[in-house]
Every structure is written in C-alpha cells, then in structure tokens.
Amino acid sequence: MSTTVGRSLGRYRAPIVVVAMLSSLLLIVPFLVLVATSWTSGSFILFPPEGFSLDWYAEVLADPEWTESFRLSLWTAALSTAIAAVLGTLAAIGLTRVRHTTARRWIRTLFIVPIALPPIAYAVGLYGVTVDLPFLRGTLATLVVGHALIALPYVFVIVSGGIARIDPALRPAASTLGARWPLILWKIELPAILPYLLSGALFAFVVVFDEVVLAVFLMPPGEQTLPLQMLNASQEAFSPELTAASTLVSGLALLVLAIVPVGRVLRRRAGRAASPRPAEGQAAPEGVTP
Amino acid sequence: MTIALSISDVHVTLGHNHVLKGVSLDVRPGEFVTLLGASGSGKSTLLNVVAGLQAVDSGQLTFDGVDVGGRPPQKRNVGVVFQSYALFPHMTVGENVAFPLLAARRPAKERRAVAAEMLALVRLPGMADRVPATLSGGQRQRVALARALAAHPGILLLDEPMAALDKQLREQMQVELTRIQRKVGITTVSVTHDQTEALTMSDRVAIMRDGALVQVDSPEDLYRHPVDAYVAGFLGEANLLPTSGGRILDDPLGEDADGTAVLRPEDLELVPADEACPAWHVEGTIQLLSFQGTRFRLELLTDAGRKVVCSLPTSVDASSLVVGTRARVVCRDPERVHVIAAPPARPVPVAV
C-alpha cells in the first residue's frame, strides 16, 4: 500500500517525505530531551545537561515515595483495567443482541461518552459519592471505579470493532449444532474476541496509568499514584528526579508495547502449523496501540 | 406416504415486511428439495424457520409428524450448512466437526472417532488437525457439511451452499454433495437462486416468489409444464405467446387470446417457405442470428412486436437466414407445447 501511495505522490514526494520525517521528530524529540536531562549531575532540569551521572535514577529507586506510588499506580490501573475489560466486552457482546437499530446506535454512543466528557465530571461526581457514603472514605474504591469508567470505552470500541469482523453466522451455526448460550459464549465468541479484548485492555491500561485528574480528587490523603506524585514533584522542586522517574516509566511502557508485536510475530511463526486467525486478530491492535 | 418435514401455512413478518405469506410444503424422507427464487423471495427465511432460527407469526411445522414449532434450534436435530460455512476459526477441523458432540457432552474419544468418520465421508481424511483458515473453499464446504451431519440430524438444510465457490468447483461440488446426500439418505432442503444448481441436485424444486410457493415439482415438470409465465421465464429461456383455439395468435393487444403458449427455443424449427402453415407456428422478421458453437441462436420479432428466440441445430442452412428478412418457425410436436390458461402480458413496444 505504502508503495502505491508513494508513487501516486509524483513530484510532491520528496517534500512530503521531509515533512513527515520532521513531524515524526516532533513526536520523539521531547522524549529524548527528557531522557537527556535526567542524566545530569547537577540538581536542576536543564538542557543540555551538566555532566553525566545516573545519581538521580538511584535517588528515585531508593525513595519509597516514588516506588510506593509506582506500585499503587500499577495495581489500581490493573484492577480498573480488569473491570473495564469485563464490562466493555460484555457491553460489546450484549449490543449485538439488540435488534432495534436506533436503540443500538444510542447505546453505542452512551458507552463511548466517557472519552468525550472531561474527566473532571467523573471526578466531581465520584467525589460527591465519597462524601455521601462515608465507608468509602479513605479507600481507593472510587478511584478504581472512576478509572474503570474512563477505560471502558477503549475496550468497548476495540472489542466492538473485533466483533464486526467475526462471521455473524457463527452463533446461529453453534445453536443449530446443539450448543446453548454459555457454551457459545465460552467456546465460540470469547475465543474469537480474545485478541481484540487483549489489545483493548492494553490501551485502557496505558490511558488509566497516566490519568491524573481523577487521582487529584479521589486519592485518600497520604497516598499518591505515580502521575500524582509527578505532578506534585513538578510543583515543589523542579528536580531531575522527576525526569528520571518519567524516563523509567516511559521505558517500561515502550517495553510493554514492544512485547505485543513481538508476541504477535512469534504467534504467527508458530501459527504456520497450528494457529488459526491469520489476519483477523492482528490488524486492529496495530491500528490502536498508542 | 410418509412425510419427513411438513410446513403448513407459515406466516412470517419482519418489521413491516410480510416475508412469508402462508407457505405450505411437504418433504418426503430422503428427498432433496430446493427452494429456488430471486433474492427477497423469502427462501432463506423459510430455511431459518425450519432451523428454528426464525420465529413464525402463525403456521405449523412438524418433523416426522411431531410438532417442533416451539423448539429452539438446539432441540430440532437439524444440520445446517451456512452460506459462509460458519466454521469456527479458532478450532481445528476435527474440533469443528465434533462440535455437536461437544455440545452434547460426549467423551473426547468418541468425538475424535466421529470426526474421523465424518471427514472420511466427505473425502477429507487426515485433515482433522488443520485449521479452517488453511483450507480451500471447496474443502471448507466439505468440513461444514461433515459438521452438519456429525450429530446424525433428521434434516439437512443448505443455505446457498455453492454461492462462495467459483463456477468450475461449483459443478464438482454439486455432484459431490448429491453423492453424500444419497449415501446418507438424509432429507434435505436447500436454498439457491441458481437454477442450474436447483435442476441438477434436486428431486423436487419449489419456486418461491414474494413470500409464497408458486410451484413445487420435479425439475422436468417445472421445465415442461410451468404453471405461469413467471416459472416459465425463471427456468431456462421461454417464448411466451398468446394462443386462441390451439393456434398462436399474434395480435398486438392479445385481447382475443385465451391462453399463453410456452415454447422452448430448442423445440422450434424453421418452416420452409413452400409449406402450408402448421398449427404451432409463428412468423416474424429476423433480428439476429448468432453462431454459438453447438447451436445457432435466431431471434425473430413478430408483427405485434413480440420477441421469439429459437435455438437451431448447426445443420440448418444459415445462408437463407438474413437479418431483416421474414422467417417462420414451428413447434412440430404438440406434446412440447405447454399452454397456460392465462393470456400473456402485452408486448413491450420495441423501437424499429
């Protein structure tokens, strides 16, 4: 495809390629600057950095405030992603059972709304819930619920897209072969959806892990998620600790995102003999991974 | 006469569409019946009604004399081959074929044995460990058939079974499918819009139009004795001409006509100019003469503006057939002339 597009550009090809290269630089250069400032041996975030040391990394990794907030972020994000994955998948499957076209369109829109609404709306609303239900005060329940709400549309959209690519005759076929709905769900529909479910969950996790607005409102005092910790660090002292921590997290994120394509290649290689789904499972994740 | 499948007075409405308008059909045990009709005629809906995938407004459905109208598809014991084949992509061929046994909670050993047996039946032995994505279209169809037959259903339903295959493979699979159907001896209802497929595979063909059955008969009877102009024109090519008192009456309005003669192009032959007019003859101006390998195709336009198509053997002297000259054609065998009681529609005006 890229070659035909390339050819069709004709004499505009060279300038377009240059612009594209510059744009991609725009995406990556800020990150490179960030990495560079964390190598400084001074005590300020400066570019170009003064000298070279990994002291700030040691500082971050030794500081329980950073490691604790990282751990906290990791498990709250995992929990809300799990909730979003279950609800989003059920919503997407359930929507296929709605026969009425107009109703289906409205329900679909409703499930996508959290992407469009500002997070502050959910933050304020859930904060009100904590005030009214005192037993939730001091727990992370509202934060996890809020994050699950924000993550749900990503799972829902990607899984819905996946379902649309699956042969609609599979379910009637299974039912004429004697399968009832639990068997159809477990043996036919979920396995077919699984690749979409995984990429939707991954996307949701990345979004939730970085989320800070809800965290500001809903974190119990004394605890901090990583994005909140970074926000606070940037307001208190503009220390290279901050950029070192960011670099570590970004590195981790890149690693996770890299695992997906590598896993895909391995699966495809193994699939020459055994695996089904040649094209279906892979196109969508490629399109959506951030 | 025993009846394996009986559909009586079935009505189905989808939204504001009256899709099936009182359809009744009886199928004998082991019979192969094809529902043939244009798209939108309701043939697929009727198949879904039999499979239990479509609820009916009213009407009765019995298998071997037992009312199954209230049963869900799981309990109807039907095997369905879907147009897309609907093979489960994440399962192997063997798992696909044995799926009905998995649904019935049969042990793994039995499932493997049945899968092997069914794959042998459709001539795909040793393919159990492949996945559907690696199979060709014809192989997928065989797997779908094996899966549909695995639970020994009482009735086999085929929804446009050849639609996804190319022409050459289609003819091959028609023979193959008929062989398997005869061998298993299963009562079969198929749906298609392809008339060749319907004629080659079926014991009887049911022509559907606008949610109703127009005629149910053997392929030959349908071709020779169509009940109306629609059936005559749907199966093969037919010349529909007004008749009155055993003669063809070529008047522009067809007002005096009391019937329609169905003349098949291959039953017509040329009448020499010096011969007296035989009974079933028609005269017109030659519009087109084309050589088609084994036959000549001759098109006449009658004085009233009706088109008549003849298929002539190549032994005919083509030199006398010049476009623009007059010619007479006749059907000499009165047995071959089928007369429908209703007069035909008026001819479409042709610009000369």
Automatic annotation (TrEMBL), chain A:
It is a multi-pass membrane protein. The chain crosses the membrane at residues 12-39, 74-95, 107-128, 140-164, 196-222, 242-262. PROSITE patterns: ABC_TM1. Pfam families: BPD_transp_1. It is found in: Cell inner membrane; Cell membrane. Keywords: Cell inner membrane, Cell membrane, Membrane, Transmembrane, Transmembrane helix, Transport. Gene3D superfamilies: MetI-like. PANTHER family: INNER MEMBRANE ABC TRANSPORTER PERMEASE PROTEIN YDCV. This is ABC transporter permease.
UniProtKB/TrEMBL annotation, chain B:
It comes from Streptomyces radicis. Pfam families: ABC_tran, TOBE_2. PROSITE patterns: ABC_TRANSPORTER_1 (PS00211), ABC_TRANSPORTER_2 (PS50893). This is ABC transporter ATP-binding protein. One of its GO terms (cellular component) is ATP-binding cassette (ABC) transporter complex. SUPFAM superfamilies: P-loop containing nucleoside triphosphate hydrolases. SMART domains: AAA. InterPro entries: AAA+_ATPase (IPR003593), ABC_SmlMolc_Importer (IPR050093), ABC_transporter-like_ATP-bd (IPR003439), ABC_transporter-like_CS (IPR017871), P-loop_NTPase (IPR027417), Transp-assoc_OB_typ2 (IPR013611). Residues 5-235 form the ABC transporter domain. Keywords: ATP-binding, Nucleotide-binding, Transport. One of its GO terms (molecular function) is transmembrane transporter activity. The keyword ATP-binding applies.
